[in-house]
Amino acid sequence: MANPPQVETVTSGADKAKLAAAVLLLIGALVAYYGLAKQGALAQWGALIVLLLAAVAAFFTSEHGKALIAYGRDSWREVGKVVWPSFKEARQMTMYVFAFVVVMALFLWLTDKTLEWVLYDLILGWKR
């Protein structure tokens, strides 16, 4: 089997700066939230939301953010290709699973009781 091709990620200085800005904005959002505790809830939440949105915007303008968006689009496209079962098929498969679980539970119970009888009554001679 052939080895898959190696993916080499090259990030530019600008891309690293965008990621660093996103991290700093995220930290700044947390610091502002706790630092503005005396200013009131509106100031706290306003600063938190604004700085978090700025951090998200900075992240999504980087190459990693663009790759994440492309991955999400590809995933959504693949979900559209899935052939979903009909209600009747889903109900039938659910009944098969329930039946299998009941049969397996009975099998395990019988196996447990048989081993208990063999070990305790026949081999050890303990009567309960």
TrEMBL record:
Transmembrane feature ranges: 19-36, 42-60, 93-111
Localization, UniProt: Membrane
Keywords: Cell membrane, Membrane, Protein transport, Translocation, Transmembrane, Transmembrane helix, Transport
Domain of life according to the entry: Bacteria
Protein name: Preprotein translocase subunit SecE
Organism: Pelomonas dachongensis
Biological classification of the source: Bacteria, Pseudomonadati, Pseudomonadota, Betaproteobacteria, Burkholderiales
